[in-house]
Amino acid sequence: MKIAKHVMPLMLAAGLFSALGPADVYAREKIDQVSLTFSLDTDNWTELNVESGDDGYSVREVTLLPDGMGDSSTPCAVVVLDAEEDYYFSSIKSKYFELEGEGAVFSEAARSNSNSTMTVSVRLKDLGEGQVESPTNLTWTDTGIATWDPVGGAGTYSVRIRRNGEAMGTASAPQTDITVYNLSTKITKTGDYVFQVRANGIYRKTQSSEWVDSPVLTVDEAALAYIQAHAAEDTGSAGSWHQDELGSWYQYTTGDVPKSEWRQIDDYWYYFNESGYMVTDQWIDRYYVGSDGKMLTDTITPDGYYVDETGAWAPK
């Protein structure tokens, strides 16, 4: 199932519900129970598969909310079901739903379209259980910047550096959500340098990968002078905006261009599409970005919904 880019609030109940008249009861057969099985796509950790177990209805749309919904930080899913022509959904009580996989627990449900459509929200307590793979293709640039390939299921990466086999610093390893980290300011002496990277899972149930070592970067006097001449304080987070006829995008000093993801830039959150362009005037899951691309917080969206101080849709 593809993850929807726009999730309308689940409980728009008052405006959507319609009563099931006596004629409809006799004309259609009721669905006695809804059975759903959830499984995370192992090739794409942000894609959730949902299978329906009985005849009479099918899955139309699945929206995965990795950060949870409302006051809960447990990953959630919102599933839209369609009844077949001669069937209708007969209940929204928790016992009406049989849920399996990923620790699925019923949260709430609503019917609409003369009870032909069911929208159900579930919490996925065991989503992402397991361990992410280790980063690969670790590489040094000649200016002391560390790079590696993205890891499926990773939300952040921890990075640390060693010189001549010895750890540098005692503080906990810094984290980044991109696959680039500028270590140039850490290289202040000649020697053999290695950086280490560990992938950290998106979900609470996901174990981090093992630490992986990069190839050795041998720094002699000439290399040290070159790195210090090009050293920068930012760790891959600084950059600049660019624009063309298709829109605006952001490029970091390390060359990275964010795509299909959220990024916090100068204290504001932006979403960039698969081509790297900033998205405007639309919902991204349960968050809304305005005409300037900034995620709205603690306000009413143009289509009339309240988003809280974190930017998430919050029913009032």
TrEMBL record:
<feature type="signal peptide">
    <location>
        <begin position="1"/>
        <end position="27"/>
    </location>
</feature>
<keyword id="KW-0732">Signal</keyword>
<dbReference type="Pfam" id="PF19085">
    <property type="entry name" value="Choline_bind_2"/>
</dbReference>
<dbReference type="InterPro" id="IPR018337">
    <property type="entry name" value="Cell_wall/Cho-bd_repeat"/>
</dbReference>
<feature type="repeat" description="Cell wall-binding">
    <location>
        <begin position="259"/>
        <end position="278"/>
    </location>
</feature>
<keyword id="KW-0677">Repeat</keyword>
<protein>
    <recommendedName>
        <fullName>Cell wall binding repeat-containing protein</fullName>
    </recommendedName>
</protein>
